[in-house]
């Protein structure tokens, strides 16, 4: 995701220059409690993420924060990196590799047709529900710290679609975490309060609601019950979740090993110190060479906290899904009895 | 791809084949309506470019973008040509598979779907489309009569516009999003604007309710027919027969055994997830004190 990160950085840079002139007090605003996305923006986001599969992509959200609601009214994709040949094919120039010029242009163009011209965050496609990663936190931090405290990240999981689920979530970094991260402190923040989920609603204007009504009346939106897993294109979600869980547990163990190594180091230094002081008593040595064990830096906590949160998310997901499977099984038992 | 926005001059010589049908994805209809809401004050007609692909003689429109356009009182039209070309280039960098296939508009001041100005704009888009003659989509947001919001497709037949069949299309993502927009509303279509919940959707429960409703409707239908001593429509009867035959015939004991085993597995997984959560909580506590 390094390119998305670069894309986001340039985005932040651009908007900073625009915004600093316009709102100097923007950080003083209160925090939003809910995110409302326009139907069109949601469709655009889902389309971009789906079209780009299997690549994971990101984009920018435009809108406005209004009181306790953050309105997302439009979005546009960031450029995915391409090889140099592709660039020449489509008339791109060498300088615009991270798409800074592209983003600038896009914002300008959209303003011409009266689209909101204020960046309120970014979106990103995620694979199978895993999102707690340091780059994501860093990027979101740069948004909330530099641009506006109300910036959100919308995470869309295209793989959930084969189970008939629409998985879009809105996240922000908590105030507590931002303070601690800004101070570069390594103190403990509860894993579940690093990234905080905000309620997400989709809002449609009256004209689009009218269109929705027509479509709904025509029964084109009928949902098909996914009782029998005939579609082999997507593996059993339970299995997939377990698989990912295992991987994340491995990652967590790896992180924990760093802590254990650190603790062992401390113990070793303490032993050494004890031995030295013992020797000093024994041979009445006045030498003052206190061991320097404090110099060893403690390993950063962020990764393991994020992994713990990710694991918890998977557990919740597994619980939710197994509840569904159980009721499905119950249904099958009843059907079997009747048949 | 270069041709998608290049060469405006050489199309007049060889007339391009016209599409015979157009499938419009929901995102395009949404985009046109959104654009209409964001129009300049006093502006009647909004126009935009359609992007998509051509399969034989069917055009599938998968994306669109708004293009500025100004109409003078004397019937002149100014289309943002630079804008159209630049936007087309920008979007091609994200998704090079979509080409310009035509344009959309809302009806002009007099309410007719197409007029002289449409002819002029159509001429302009004939140069912008690469493979085929452009299609023209008219999105009518005026909600007159019982029509609702209508979508109509047109192609140029040499001396005017000829209407071609036009239908809404949905891909899986769109279908899910739209279904969510409808079902997530607290009181569906109780107000003009709609706000729907996206999170924690119980799609399976809703789908099950839908299925139950269908079964009820079917049972009512069959009952009514029997009461009236009429024959059931053979098509329905055949479909019903097929649906019932689809139920797998498994030995009762085998089926129950398999189900029991599966239930046990799922319970085990769910239990393990619970244990993991407890472990994580303990881990967090240790971390905190450390």
From TrEMBL, chain A:
Keywords of the record: Cytoplasm, Initiation factor, Protein biosynthesis
GO cellular component, one term: eukaryotic translation initiation factor 3 complex
InterPro entries registered for this protein in UniProt: eIF3h (IPR027524), eIF3h_C (IPR045810), JAMM/MPN+_dom (IPR000555), JAMM_MPN+_peptidase_M67A (IPR050242), MPN (IPR037518)
Protein name from the UniProt record: MPN domain-containing protein
Gene3D superfamilies associated with the record: Cytidine Deaminase, domain 2
Tree of life domain: Eukaryota
Organism taxonomic ancestry: Eukaryota, Sar, Stramenopiles, Ochrophyta, Pelagophyceae
Residue span(s) of domain MPN: 35-177
GO molecular function: metallopeptidase activity; translation initiation factor activity
Organism annotation: Pelagomonas calceolata
UniProtKB/TrEMBL annotation, chain B:
All residue ranges annotated as the MPN domain in the record: 22-160
Gene Ontology terms for molecular function: metallopeptidase activity; translation initiation factor activity; translation initiation factor binding
InterPro entries the record matches: EIF3F/CSN6-like_C, JAMM/MPN+_dom, MPN
Origin: domain of life: Eukaryota
Gene3D superfamilies named among the record's database cross-references: Cytidine Deaminase, domain 2 (3.40.140.10)
Pfam annotation, one family: JAB
GO cellular component terms listed in the entry, alphabetical order: eukaryotic translation initiation factor 3 complex, eIF3m
UniProt protein name: MPN domain-containing protein
């Amino acid at each position: 995701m390094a390119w998305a990160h670069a894309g986001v950085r340039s985005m932040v840079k651009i908007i900073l220059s625009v915004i600093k002139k316009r709102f100097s007090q923007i950080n003083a605003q209160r925090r939003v409690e809910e995110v409302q996305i326009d139907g069109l923006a949601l469709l655009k986001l889902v389309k971009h993420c789906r079209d780009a599969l299997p690549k994971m992509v990101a984009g920018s959200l435009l809108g406005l924060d209004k009181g306790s609601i953050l309105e997302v009214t439009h979005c546009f994709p960031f450029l995915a990196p391409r090889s140099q040949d592709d660039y020449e094919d489509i008339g791109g120039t060498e300088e615009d590799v991270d798409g800074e010029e592209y983003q600038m242009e896009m914002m300008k163009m959209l303003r011409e047709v009266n689209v909101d011209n204020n960046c309120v965050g970014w979106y990103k496609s995620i694979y199978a529900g895993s999102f707690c990663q340091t780059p994501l936190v860093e990027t979101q931090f740069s948004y909330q710290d530099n641009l506006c405290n109300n910036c959100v990240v919308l995470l869309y999981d295209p793989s959930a679609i084969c189970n008939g689920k629409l998985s879009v979530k809105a996240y922000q970094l908590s105030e507590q975490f931002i303070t601690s991260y800004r101070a570069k402190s390594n103190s403990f923040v509860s894993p579940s309060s690093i990234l905080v989920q905000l309620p997400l609603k989709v809002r449609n204007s009256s004209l689009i609601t009218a269109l929705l009504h027509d479509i709904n009346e025509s029964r084109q939106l009928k949902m098909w019950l996914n009782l029998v897993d005939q579609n082999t294109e997507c593996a059993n979600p339970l299995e997939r979740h377990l698989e990912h869980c295992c991987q994340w547990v491995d990652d967590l163990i790896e992180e924990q090993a760093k802590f254990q190594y650190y603790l062992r180091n401390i113990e070793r230094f303490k032993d050494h110190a004890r031995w030295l002081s013992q020797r000093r008593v024994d041979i009445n040595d006045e030498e003052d060479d206190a061991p320097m064990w404090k110099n060893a830096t403690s390993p950063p906590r962020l990764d393991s906290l994020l992994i713990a949160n990710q694991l918890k998310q998977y557990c919740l997901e597994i619980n939710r899904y197994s509840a569904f499977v159980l009721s499905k099984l119950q249904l099958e038992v009843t059907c079997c009895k009747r048949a | 791809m270069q041709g998608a926005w290049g060469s405006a001059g050489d199309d007049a010589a060889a007339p391009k084949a016209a599409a015979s049908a157009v499938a419009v994805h929901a995102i395009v209809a949404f985009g046109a309506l959104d654009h209409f809401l964001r129009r300049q004050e006093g502006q009647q007609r909004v126009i935009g470019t359609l992007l998509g692909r051509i399969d034989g003689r069917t055009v599938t429109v998968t994306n669109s973008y708004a293009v500025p356009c100004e109409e003078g009182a004397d019937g002149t039209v100014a289309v943002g040509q630079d804008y159209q070309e630049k936007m087309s280039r920008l979007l091609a960098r994200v998704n090079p598979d979509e080409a310009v296939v035509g344009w959309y508009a809302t009806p002009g001041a007099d309410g007719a779907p197409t007029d002289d100005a449409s002819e002029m704009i159509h001429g302009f888009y004939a140069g912008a489309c690469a493979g085929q003659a452009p299609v023209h989509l008219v999105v009518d947001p005026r909600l007159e009569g019982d029509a609702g919001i209508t979508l109509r497709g047109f192609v140029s037949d040499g001396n005017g516009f000829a209407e071609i069949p036009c239908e809404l299309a949905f891909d899986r993502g769109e279908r899910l999003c739209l279904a969510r927009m409808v079902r997530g509303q607290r009181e569906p279509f109780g107000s003009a604007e709609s706000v729907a919940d996206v999170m924690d959707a119980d799609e399976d429960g809703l789908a099950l309710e839908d299925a139950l409703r269908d079964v009820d409707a079917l049972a009512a239908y069959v009952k009514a027919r029997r009461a009236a001593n009429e024959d059931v429509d053979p098509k329905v009867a055949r479909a019903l027969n097929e649906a019932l035959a689809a139920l797998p015939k498994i030995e009762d004991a085998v089926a129950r055994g398999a189900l029991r085993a599966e239930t046990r597995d799922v319970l085990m997984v769910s239990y393990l997830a619970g244990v993991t959560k407890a472990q994580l909580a303990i881990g967090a506590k240790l971390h905190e004190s450390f």
